Amino acid sequence: MSDHLIEPHNGTLVDLLVDEQEAEQLKKESEQWLSWDLTQRQICDLELLMHGGFSPLQGFMNQADYESVCKNMRLNDGTLWPLPITLDIDEETAQNLNQGDKLALRDSEGVMLAALCVEDLWQPDLTAEARQVFNTEDKEHPGVANLLQNTNPWYVGGRVLGIESPRHYDFTDLRRTPQELREEFAEAGWQKVIAFQTRNPMHRAHFELTFRAAKENEANLLIHPVVGMTKPGDVNHYTRVRCYKAIMSYYPTNTAKLSLLPLAMRMAGPREALWHAIIRKNYGCTHFIVGRDHAGPGKDASGTPFYGPYEAQEMLQQYQDELGIKMVPFKLMGYVPEKSEYMPVDEAPEELEVKHMSGTELRERLAKGVSIPDWFSFPEVITELQKTYPPRKERGFTVFFTGLPSSGKSTIANILLVKLQELGGRAATLLDGDIVRKHLSSELGFSKEHRNINIRRIGFVASEITKNGGIAICAPIAPYEQVRQDVREMIESKGGEMQLVHVSTPLEVCEQRDRKGLYAKARAGIVKEFTGISDPYEEPQNPDVTLTTTEMTPEEAAQSVLLHLEHEGFIGPAR
Ligand code: ADP
Ligand code: ADP
Fold this sequence. Notes:
It contains 20 helices and 18 strands. The protein has helices at 20-29, 40-50, 63-72, 91-95, 126-134, 142-149, 178-188, 204-217, 237-248, 269-282, 311-323, 359-368, 379-388, 409-423, 433-439, 448-467, 481-493, 507-513, 518-523, 554-567; strands spanning 34-37, 59-60, 87-89, 102-106, 112-122, 154-162, 193-198, 220-225, 256-258, 287-290, 326-329, 333-336, 341-344, 397-402, 428-432, 471-475, 498-504, 545-548.
């Protein structure tokens, strides 16, 4: 490790932004350099690097630091640092880059945010990295999944020359750099500051925990939520920040502050907790709260948690002396109805009931539109969450029909569309196979590749309709299982839900019906790549509804979908 990448760790902050003149000079020179368009994750890392949130790092790690961090949780010079901060680039860029070059780092619009002085270029063993850093290769772990599935094959390391901070247009008054926070603390006379990390909306348990930590330590509080990237499926940060703002009014005036952290989390549990603590030290805090299952990635396929609930606390305890920031450990906080107060479980008398509500139960309650008890959260927080997560009967959704040609998809989908329009309340759109091929995919044919592109386009439109609270009814053949899954994931990644309906009609019956005379043409060889005759149809593995159209009329089929939607809560009582 070259020493110039490390500032002596005496609490000094790294600031990688160059002055205006140098920035202009670099921009001019960059016409001769290669460029790299940063991913969202890389932009988060760059922002933390630039303003010293990652002090003492002065750039993306070189190979020696990377290997040492993966193996020993230390930079090559011995400084404690638990997670790799690397810049991954594609094959083509790597092939054209040499040591000593500069690489222009740009945002998605092409604005040059920084220059990287290329010191090292190598192909990492990502599986080994997963094992060392996350202690597992299991892709159920979101950090591992991201590492193994979304990482480019080359790492490039070297010093960063910062030209411009990544732009944010949201909550700008709540985004403070380490330097700004340090200055604010000094001005306010805050000497002891306890930082609280979170990626979830705060409820009473979090409020009680933070307030107790402040009281017991006679310290001020920094609520420091992550708004960069968190675990997929988390509540979006817009909603969360509105919740945090509401919560701030419950702390005594002048004792607590809210600031947003543009960090990309790795969900690395204990190692991540250590990292969070170092980052908070850089932001001028003296104490850091670590509760139960800090930065926990959840469970593996067999239901076993990846890390123990208090492993993060043990890790910080082990490194407490060299950390330079003090851990404030907390056991799980729960509500004790008998005493009408929150307590850490180990302090609550054994005979008394301690209440908790999991994130899953909260989501279920919101989906059903059931009330959320007062002990669990604050009214303002509940209102915000109810706005973002209305009950299922008011949310958008997608009904995706699949089946052979002439199986009955269009007929049933059209009846369903009419029934849902009669019901009212939500706009509904039918994306019928033929309509889509005319308006969205007119240039596509019927090869597997083209069929899948067509279905992905339908999926994209359906996901947007669903996200915006409408009903999308899709009725393509969609013969391939994988792409049907992809559509479901596309919809779910935007917080929506999809119901897959298999219109299960035997081939002979479809051929008999032959509504458009296409089976006859396929048999005659006039129409090629015809599903069921000269092209495959993969039956859905796990459809939500199966319609046996040989035993029901189209009206009955549409009714059974409607009743299924009612059963799942997508259609509900008017009030
Ligand atoms: P993450 O740990 O992934 O940021 P959270 O936002 O849920 O997830 O938690 C933030 C902090 O609060 C962590 O230190 C966590 O251990 C702690 N925490 C969350 N809920 C509780 C609870 N009910 N009792 C004790 N600690 C908690
Ligand atoms: P697809 O959209 O799957 O190609 P269509 O809905 O265009 O199929 O054609 C199905 C044909 O089968 C229509 O003529 C329809 O009237 C007829 N049919 C007969 N019984 C049923 C049923 N139970 N459900 C749906 N369609 C049926």
